[in-house]
Each structure stands twice: as C-alpha cells, then as structure tokens.
Design a protein that fits this description.
Helix content is 3%, strand content 53%. The chain is an all-beta fold. It has a 4-stranded antiparallel beta sheet, with no helix packed on it. The chain has a 3-stranded antiparallel beta sheet with strand order 1-2-3, with no helix packed on it. A hairpin with a 2-residue loop joins strand 4 (50-59) and strand 5 (62-70).
Amino acid sequence: MYYTAFEPWIQKPAKNEPRYNLKLATSANGIDWARDQTVVIDFKSHSEHAISRPSLLLEDGLYRLWYCSRGDQYRIGYAQSTDGKNYIRHDESVGIELSDDGWDSEMQEYPHIFDYNDRRYMVYNGNNFGQTGLGLAVLEQHD
C-alpha cells in the first residue's frame, strides 16, 4: 500500500507549509501493516513540498504510478518502477497540461487512473482543489 506520510513542516514567516510524500506499507493479510519508512516518491526540489493521492496500475510487469505534487500549485505527476519500491519520476510524460483558461488552468490534482473497454481514463480535480468539480481525461491511443 502506498500512503501519504507527513514530514516536518516548512517554517515560513507568513504561513507554515505542510510537507508530505509517498511511502510504502506491506501486509501479509491486509489487516496488519508494516511501515518501514520506505519513501517511494520523494520531493524533486526544495520548492516541492507535497506529494499525495497515488493511483497505481500494474501493466506487463511495470508499476505505473500517478500522483499529485505541489510547489506553488498542484500538478499531476507520473513515475515507473519494476519492483514497486524504487520509482523513477517521469513527470514530463504525464500526458496532460493545464488548460489555457477555465476550471483546470491553474491546478490539476488528485488523479485516479483506470482502464475501461480498452481505454485508459483519468479522473482529476481542477482549480482550488476541484471547487467547480472534476474532469475526465481519456488517453489518446497512438499507432
């Protein structure tokens, strides 16, 4: 199980900022969980301070993990792993950009990825943490 884990807060004069990343817990029975503090997605820079909402697909032996990360505003990120523990971030390959204007022109966060009828979908929130609702993106298939 991947979960959001809080780290020490960033102390700022105007407003303190929470810090959290994604860690791994394991269980043999789905009831009792062991957390060894393994970080699966960590901050990529000092300006990034929040990583949350993991959405995982295992495809042909490759773990594909979508999540959201925050510096000034939330963005959707993407990483891959062959063992489910050691991930390499490929945020540039997430496949969705902010809109020029409208409900998701400032923020995109809290992705959930799923496959249905041989298509891949992503449900996500837009500006202000989804204040005006959520969106549905469909992955375009390229030959």
